[in-house]
Write a structure and sequence with these properties.
The protein is of the alpha+beta class. It is about 30% helix and about 20% strand. The chain has a 5-stranded antiparallel beta sheet. The chain is globular and about 50 Å long.
Length: about 140
């Protein structure tokens, strides 16, 4: 088991993936591969609020997943702080509050971010990256 993850791990892992561009790097960055977002830091929205105060969360990170099955697996794993809202019904992504990222093991977070990249990268880029790591597509 590695150390607890940090928000910097999200940024570092996303930036380390090949062919990544960053939109709005100074505030609420959006990490993209081939013009497709795979991780982005959301601005506060009415669908994600503190149940006690009603205030909008200002630290929500959207992370793509490959399928609805992958989304449900992350959401149902009680060890992990991922969540979703009705706004994201039918969308292949999970939400994570930056303030809770330390509840995830760094190695597990890196794998989730890499899989987010794979979910949005072209087949050619995905195969090349997997081959560079000697993994099967």
């Amino acid at each position: 088991m590695s150390r607890p993850a940090t928000v910097d791990d999200i940024h570092a892992t996303a930036r380390a993936m090949p062919h990544v561009t960053v939109v709005r790097p100074e505030k609420n960055p959006v990490y993209q591969v081939g013009s497709k977002s795979f991780v982005f830091f959301r601005t506060p929205r009415p669908d994600a609020v503190d149940p006690e105060t009603g205030e909008r969360y200002d630290d929500v990170v959207v992370i793509w997943v490959a399928s609805e099955g992958d989304k449900q697996a992350l959401l149902q794993d009680e060890r992990l702080p991922f969540f979703t809202t009705a706004h994201f019904d039918g969308h292949a992504s999970v939400l994570l509050r930056a303030s809770r990222v330390g509840e995830i093991d760094r190695d597990e977070l890196v794998e989730i971010i890499e899989e987010a990249w794979l979910a949005q990268a072209s087949d050619r880029r995905g195969r090349a990256w997997l081959a560079s790591r000697e993994l099967e597509p």
